[in-house]
Structures are given as structure tokens and as C-alpha cells.
Amino acid sequence: MTTQIENDPDQMDHKTCRYICDAVGERLQQNMRPEPTLSSRLQQLLDEMRRRETDHH
């Protein structure tokens, strides 16, 4: 039995997609200067994103 990914050469598997997203995120963090202070809303969103990433892994 073949999967949909095997039938469509334009599709990436989840592991490859995650690896690329992580690499792009790391590169952005290295190249972007952090804001001196974040708005409270943006800080809340970042905290929530970090919490979800920790919970997911």
C-alpha cells in the first residue's frame, strides 16, 4: 500500500517539513535583531508559542 506522499512528488513528509521550518526559524533568530522591549500582547503570544512547543515535544 502506498501513501499519498509517495504518489505526489511535490509533497514532503512531516519530518522533512519540520526540519526545514526549524532551520528557517533558527536562521531568522540569528539574523533578526531583537526589539528592545516587546508589547505585552506580543510577549504573551511568544510565551504561548513556547509553551505549546514544549507541550508538543
TrEMBL record:
Residues 47-57 have a biased composition (Basic and acidic residues). Residues 30-43 have a biased composition (Polar residues). Residues 30-57 are annotated as: Disordered. This is Anti-sigma factor NepR domain-containing protein.
